[in-house]
Design goal:
By secondary structure, this protein is mostly helical. The protein is built from 10 helices and no strands.
């Protein structure tokens, strides 16, 4: 007796697979708006318009503004961590890697991270705040790891590597200030000057 083989239909992708590109686009656009303007000035309606969708469609992917803000900052911090790691690894040495990282960061308009967090903290849950801070710590951890390696090899003066990571991140926020930026013809020149200042402050002491 001849049997008939039945082929299972491939069917449509799972809903989560279909939604992923749209969700990623929303997060990318929202992260830019939040970083440039802060938490309060940006509404879900503004984000929906920038994404070319209705506010109802936005709510399909994110329950509220706090949830979208959290996912956007975590995405941004994770992307920054991966970019920092690559720039430093691909560079000839740590100093030139830091220069490239500084140029990339300072060439993009953004508010001070701590200002954004202070503004938004009352709207976020403890779990959301913890997740954002963990992503931030991971970013600083990349710098701290490279700083520790440089100290171990004698390229840098002994110091707390995590403190150095926070110090460098805070110093790079000078790009938001008008007067320091006006001292140089371009943002890359300002970035290089800042890294020069940072590096000379941690270089090994000469006998």
């Amino acid at each position: 007796m001849k049997t008939t083989r039945t082929t299972k239909a491939l069917g449509r992708p799972k809903r989560s697979e279909q939604d992923a590109p749209t969700r990623d686009t929303i997060i990318q656009i929202a992260s830019r708006l939040f970083l440039e303007n802060g938490y309060e000035p940006i509404s879900l309606n503004q984000i929906a318009v920038e994404c070319g969708m209705t506010k109802a469609s936005l709510y399909y992917h994110f329950a509220n503004k706090a949830e979208l803000f959290t996912e956007s900052l975590i995405w941004m911090l994770t992307r920054a961590r991966m970019s920092t790691e690559k720039l430093i690894k691909d560079a000839a040495d740590l100093r030139s890697g830091l220069e490239q990282m500084a140029i990339v960061k300072m060439s993009r308009p953004h508010m001070d991270f701590e200002s954004i967090m202070r503004e938004s903290s009352s709207n976020l849950t403890e779990e959301q705040l913890t997740r954002i801070r963990e992503a931030e710590q991971a970013l600083h951890g990349v710098l701290a790891t490279h700083f520790q390696a440089a100290m171990d090899s004698g390229q840098m003066r002994k110091a707390n590597p995590l403190l150095l990571a926070h110090t460098l991140s805070a110093t790079l926020m000078l790009s938001n200030r008008q007067q320091p930026a006006e001292l140089f013809d371009s943002m890359p020149e300002l970035a290089k000057a800042i890294i020069d200042l940072f590096w000379n402050g941690v270089a090994p002491e000469r006998l």
